[in-house]
Amino acid sequence: MKRTFQPSIIKKNRNYGFRYRMSYKNGIKILSRRRKKMRYYLTI
């Protein structure tokens, strides 16, 4: 039986990457919240 988690960097970046987040109004809100919290990583 195969494991359920089969990681793909391309798929991950397309859904959670910086450019994806910047392309939506709510995504920009996510980034600003993470900046406010002083997160070391804004996106994956």
UniProtKB/TrEMBL annotation:
<keyword id="KW-0687">Ribonucleoprotein</keyword>
<protein>
    <recommendedName>
        <fullName>Large ribosomal subunit protein bL34</fullName>
    </recommendedName>
</protein>
<dbReference type="InterPro" id="IPR020939">
    <property type="entry name" value="Ribosomal_bL34_CS"/>
</dbReference>
<dbReference type="GO" id="GO:0006412">
    <property type="term" value="P:translation"/>
</dbReference>
<dbReference type="GO" id="GO:1990904">
    <property type="term" value="C:ribonucleoprotein complex"/>
</dbReference>
<comment type="similarity">
    <text>Belongs to the bacterial ribosomal protein bL34 family.</text>
</comment>
<keyword id="KW-0689">Ribosomal protein</keyword>
<dbReference type="InterPro" id="IPR000271">
    <property type="entry name" value="Ribosomal_bL34"/>
</dbReference>
<dbReference type="GO" id="GO:0005840">
    <property type="term" value="C:ribosome"/>
</dbReference>
<dbReference type="GO" id="GO:0003735">
    <property type="term" value="F:structural constituent of ribosome"/>
</dbReference>
<dbReference type="Pfam" id="PF00468">
    <property type="entry name" value="Ribosomal_L34"/>
</dbReference>
